[in-house]
């Protein structure tokens, strides 16, 4: 019989398009988990992203499975379908409410890179976000923190090892027949090749479909 694991009390949430998931995402989650003593980090692939409605995104099921493959070896990393199973555009306020319902007794920590943290005030119901989670902004090469308008005490900034990797660059590399080995986990390299992602137009979905 498998012993019941105690309910996690400190849960990180790593939202992202993950198109594809790469080592920058994984290092960010691992570093924040260590610094804040998190029991679990939940990766939440987005549905349609409000800031990315102008570009085609890979089918949610592919992005979800790549996140599962990338996190499978870490017992503290899990993947949630909350955003991809909710219809319509993904807003972080809905992500946090859904995850709060799954982990009603846990303290939530929302993990973002420097670029995304600066956009928080443009997010839907920005004022309500602070009550639902503590926000942790991590350093990202090429991006500066823009925290002037954020409420003090509601967020933390954390320096992490610099990983100059972006999903955009990974996609462009695959399109140009350049390697993505060591930028993304090995299983993700193989998944991309197996399904022709970033080359085969049928693996894309228009964000509002
Ligand atoms: P894209 O180029 O498609 O926007 P991305 O690499 O920025 O992809 P996202 O899925 O947009 O990846 O990012 C999800 C979250 O991970 C965001 O909060 C982003 O700031 C953070 N993040 C992404 N890459 C890094 C990195 N190399 N270092 C630190 N944080 C990162
Ligand atoms: Mg991004």
Automatic annotation (TrEMBL):
Q: InterPro entries from the xrefs?
A: Cyt_trans-like, NadD/NMNAT, Rossmann-like_a/b/a_fold
Note whether Thylakoid occurs among the keywords: no
GO function term, MF aspect, one: ATP binding
An example of a Pfam family matching this protein is CTP_transf_like
- Top-level class of the enzyme under EC nomenclature: transferase
CDD domains assigned: NMNAT (cd02165)
Record pathway: Cofactor biosynthesis; NAD(+) biosynthesis; deamido-NAD(+) from nicotinate D-ribonucleotide: step 1/1
Q: Does the keyword Amino-acid biosynthesis apply?
A: no
- Keyword annotations for this protein? ATP-binding, NAD, Nucleotide-binding, Nucleotidyltransferase, Pyridine nucleotide biosynthesis, Transferase
Reactions performed catalytically: nicotinate beta-D-ribonucleotide + ATP + H(+) = deamido-NAD(+) + diphosphate
Enzyme Commission number(s) of this protein = 2.7.7.18
Q: Where is the Cytidyltransferase-like domain?
A: 13-173
GO BP terms: NAD+ biosynthetic process
Q: Which family does it belong to?
A: Belongs to the NadD family.
Function as written in the Swiss-Prot or TrEMBL entry: Catalyzes the reversible adenylation of nicotinate mononucleotide (NaMN) to nicotinic acid adenine dinucleotide (NaAD).
The record's section on HAMAP family has: NaMN_adenylyltr
Q: Which NCBIfam families match?
A: cyt_tran_rel, nicotinate (nicotinamide) nucleotide adenylyltransferase, PRK00071.1-3
Full protein name: Probable nicotinate-nucleotide adenylyltransferase
Record organism: Ruania alba
Give me the gene this protein comes from.
nadD
